[in-house]
Amino acid sequence: MYKFAIIIAAVVGVFFIVIAGYVYMGAEGNTESVDKAKSILASTLYSSVILMGGYVFLKALNPDLIQFHSIQPPSVTINTLPTPTDVGANEPEILNTPPNSTSPNTSKAGCDYKDNADAWPEMVSISVPVWDQNGNGKTLSVTVNKQVQDKVKNAFNEIYNSSEKFPIIVAQGYNFNYADAAKTIVSGHACGLAIDINPGSNPMLKNGVTGAWKPCSGNSSACDKLSITANGSLVQAFAKQGFSWGGNWISLKDYMHMSCIQNEHGSCPFLKKH
User: Fold this and answer.
1) What are phi and psi of 237, to 5 degrees?
2) Which H helix or E strand runs over 23?
3) Over its length of 274 residues, how does the chain's per-residue pLDDT go in tens digits?
4) Are 219 and 206 a contacting pair, CB within 8 Å?
5) Burial of 133 (0-12, 13-18, 19+ CB in 10 A)
6) Calpha distance 11→25 (Å, rounded)
7) Alpha-carbon distances, residue 186 vs 85, 155, 174, 227 (angstroms)
8) Which residues of 147-162 are buried (b: 16+ CB within 10 A; e: fewer)?
9) Edge to edge, what strands does the sheet with 257-259 contain?
10) Buried b (16+ CB within 10 A) or exposed e, 228-259
11) 118: part of which helix (H) or strand (E)?
12) Residues with Cβ < 8 Å from 120, sequence gap 6 or more?
């Protein structure tokens, strides 16, 4: 892009040099016209020097700054996300799962918050560094419980600093909803202790439902870079902070879901407010 600008500037510069020469030749001794021609020529030369200087400086600083990169919108597979009443509803095989299973137990929540007004004062919005699909760094805002904000920051920082550069375009934290149809058990999101990552590429699969979960492994070309893998930097980074991954569950798969509540095999203590 910068090279293209230099070419255009060169053409414009030649044009103004010709104009300056024309004015100078037609001055016939007129001091005002001669000064005008000199002014045009000087301005053209100064502008060219500044433009070339900027090019050399940017190239020395970072060659990518002078390269043209076409803007590609993210390719995201849209899946229907579970509603708050879907999560854990009519799942007796989950509620009756032995304690040592890798399936979530929704019989208890991670906190005793009563409603949004009760939970919201316990939340904080934090900015975390992430990579986009084009390998560019940016920040996302995610709302979580104050008690785990440092854990979440540490996880995202480790993911960002990993050589994998796993892209994250969506990170959904706090949302006051329920884990059962009767609305008696608040979800991990309602406690601010769960985060959904790239939900469009990491669906919840249960009761035989299939979805677009296509993690990249090896040299596979028909994969989705936004899909989370079990051995990837994201799962490992969150695991170090006490978060479990829904992709490891058995009776259902919730590939987007990272949770630190104990009944989803996380290590965060129960948050008791009342």
Assistant:
1) -65, -45
2) helix 2-25
3) 556 666 787 787 778 778 767 777 776 767 777 777 678 778 878 777 887 777 777 767 766 666 655 555 544 444 444 433 333 333 333 333 333 334 444 446 789 898 999 999 999 999 999 999 999 999 999 999 999 999 999 999 999 999 999 999 999 999 999 887 888 888 999 999 999 999 989 888 876 556 677 778 765 667 888 899 988 999 999 999 999 999 988 878 899 999 999 988 999 999 988 8
4) no
5) middle
6) 21
7) 10, 24, 12, 27
8) bbbebbbbbbebbbee
9) 171-172, 194-197, 257-259, 244-245
10) bbeebbbbbbbbebbbbbbbbbebbbbbbbbb
11) helix 116-119
12) 176
Six-digit token string for 260: 């630190």
Residue 31: CB atoms within 10 A of its CB come to: 8
The single-letter code of the amino acid at 273 is K
Question: Which one-letter amino acid corresponds to residue 217?
Answer: S
**Total count of residues recorded for the chain:** 274
- Give the pair of three-digit tokens for residue 25: 């030749």
CA–CA dist 227, 205 (Å, integer) = 14
